[in-house]
Structures are given as C-alpha cells and as structure tokens.
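ok posting inputs for the NAP job
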Amino acid sequence: MTARYEVVQVASLGAAFDARLAAHYRVLQAWREPLGLAAFGGELAGPRVAVTSVRHGFTQPMFDALPNLQAVCSWGVGYDTLDLRAAANRRIGISVTPDVLDDCVADLAWALMLSAARRTAVGDRYVKSGQWRAIGQFPVATRVSGKRLGILGLGRIGEAIARRGAGFDMQVRYHNRSPRPQSPYPYETSLVDLAAWADFLVVACVGGAATRHLVDAPVIRALGPRGILVNIARGSVVDQAAALAALRSGELGGAGLDVLEQEPTDAADFADLDQVSLMPHAGSATHETRAAMADLVFDNVAAFLRSGALLTPIADREMQA
Ligand code: NAP
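and the output
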C-alpha cells in the first residue's frame, strides 16, 4: 500500500523550496493540477499540514476538502486571504513568516517616500528620455529629512519603518488600536489627528475587513496638500477613489503605493500623476528575504510534523478576531 501524504502544497513557493519539501516529506503537489484540490479524492485524507502563500490564500472549501488537516503554513505575513474563522472552528493552527521580511518591506516604504517626495522615478525618465538636455533643470521637489512621520500600524514592519526615521532626523508618531507598551514614539488615539500632524503618513497595519478604508477622505484631507501618503500594507486599507480624487484636486500632495485595491493592475488612473510612485506589490521581493521566508515555511512544517507545534503561529487574539 502507498504511504499516505503528510503535506499538501496548494501553492508553489519556487523550484528550490518545492524540491526541498518533496525531498523530506511525502507531498501532494496540488498546485500542479489546474483543478487544485478538486483533482484529488482519497489522497486528501492523508495530509496533516498544508503549505500555501498569502497570494494563494486558504479558503473554507480547502479546509473542507482536507479532513485530517491540523496546520497551515503560509508564505507571507498578511492573513487577509486566509480564512481564520474556518481554521479556528477546527482548531487548525496557521503559521506565517513574520520578522524575516520587516527590513525589506521597511526599505521599500522608504524608497516610496523618497521617490514620491523627491520624484526619483520621474527624474529617471527625465534623464533617459532626453528631457534634461532638451528642457533643462528638473523641477524642485519636497524635502524629506527633518519632517514628521506618522505610522498607521506600529507593528513589526511599522517599527522598522520608524527606526529608519531616526536616520532622517524625523519625529515619529503612530496610531494602532491600542498604544504599544514601551514604545519610544508618541501615540495618537485618532488617525485623523495623526494625519493632520504628519508630513508623511505610512500605512503598515494589517489588511482585511476590520481595516478596510481606514484611510478615508477625512484622513486624506487631514494629511493635506503638502502631505504624502505611503501604503505598503494592503490596498484595501486606503479608499483609493478618495485618494485619487484628492491627488487630482491637489488636496493630497503625493503618494507612494506598493499595494492597490485591484492587483495586478495597469493602474491607468494613476498614469499621468507624477506625484505618485507605484510598485507592483514587491515589499518583500529581494532574493535574501524571499529565501528567508521559504526557509521559515519549511521550518514550520518540520516543527509541526516533529512536535505538533508551529514556530510562528498567528496569535490567538488574531485567530479569534
Ligand atoms: P504586525 O506586527 O501584526 O503589525 C500590525 C499592526 O497593525 C499592529 O501594530 C496593530 O496594532 C495594527 N493594527 C491592526 N489592526 C488595526 C486597526 N484596526 N487599526 C489600527 N491599527 C491596527 O504585522 P506586520 O508584520 O508589521 O505586517 C503588517 C502588514 O504589512 C501585514 O498584515 C501585511 O498586510 C503587510 N505586508 C505587506 C507586504 C508588502 O509586500 N507590501 C509585505 C509584508 C507585509 P494593534 O493590534 O494595537 O491595533
């Protein structure tokens, strides 16, 4: 009789990871099938652990298809695409890949802040298209150093963004649902007040229904015509139509967006806005960080199959939320 599968993989995490996992465990590679889990029958009774990614997610039908599932190991730190309620109902643990991506996502937040303020992407096009020679001096832009940095979501990534502010001589304040004990930065109870204070408002909170359109028209108006909005969290946190309208009318000074409400997109609405810098959801996308994320998924699978415990589970508070 063929041995049961131990792991089911619903998303490929790259050739190196896929091969490593398959070399250590009996893996049902459901991602190879266009129908996914629906392509299988009795084999689905085997796996105790599933591997997925934040992009691929893990939905109620996936939980339903796997009767003996005990853990889901996801690649990425967001969990807006993972059905936490379905997992909690069956006491299935979920791990994500925190900490290892903080620096690279924070670096990208700063790249977007600098690009939106100093127009580096526009300047690149200006030089390469011959405009420098043809037109002359590039328009003056907005100063970054010494300004006020507001952070919505002072968690792991938000902290890494805030720490970098010291190198730019910036004051930092933040807004969370509740103040962080021992944080050196002043807490603002109101997001509108934080936006009114800040020159740069960086969004680094969780995505999902609870934070949908947290950055709405009043917050954007409070940030104002000289303010710059940066979002490296999830597109859903910002009311994109309100942001776009404010950018067009001049009520908002600029934006740096790694994430948008629809992904992928050609973002045609933003195409003519030089005060906006866009990235294609690439916060963690460096060779080093992607390798560390894959290692952490592997380590979670290994730890669970060895001991029944995940290394980096989503906290109970979030699972119950
Ligand atoms: P984290 O450590 O859990 O921090 C999340 C922060 O959000 C916490 O400070 C939390 O504070 C705050 N928060 C949660 N709900 C809130 C609400 N309703 N209102 C205000 N603040 C709220 O998470 P992280 O590791 O820093 O990651 C943050 C997010 O970044 C992820 O969820 C993911 O969506 C995004 N991300 C994006 C990329 C990318 O490629 N662009 C890569 C990685 C992660 P309280 O609990 O006190 O409210």
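notes: Residues 77-78, 98, 101, 105, 153-158, 176-178, 204-207, 210-211, 214, 232-234, 258-259, 281, 283-284 surround NAP (CB under 6 Å). The mean pLDDT is 97.
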